[in-house]
Design goal:
Elements lengths: L9 H11 L2 E6 L2 E6 L3 H11 L4 H11 E4 L2 H4 L1 H11 L14
Antiparallel strand pairs: 1-2, 2-3
């Protein structure tokens, strides 16, 4: 059950995809959020914030990648902690190789 007051339309999802390439739907029990992938600026800000408070990493990622959805995911601790468990999946790391020549 989605308790969002303004449901996200398919048109909005398509607009976000056009702007951000990849978007993600995060479901925490009966709440939904739509997120974009974090870029280097967001990751840098999250890493800097986490140096004094480890929970700030997830807060910065969620806030800066947020496109729309149920605000309770950001404001209610139980929803936030549920979302936090999935946020690392937004960060894609490619495999690299280093060869000595």
């Amino acid at each position: 059950m989605n308790t969002q007051t303004n449901p996200i339309s398919q048109e909005q999802i398509e607009a976000w995809k056009a702007k951000h390439k990849e978007i993600f739907k995060l479901i925490v029990e009966d709440k939904e959020a739509y997120l974009k992938k974090p870029d280097r600026k967001i990751l840098a800000a999250a890493t800097a914030a986490s140096s004094t408070n480890p929970m700030k990493f997830n807060e910065v990622i969620l806030t800066n990648c947020w496109l729309g959805g149920d605000e309770e995911i950001k404001t209610d601790d139980s929803y936030f902690l549920g979302a936090s468990a999935k946020l690392s999946e937004l960060i894609e790391i490619k495999q690299a190789e280093l060869e000595k020549l």
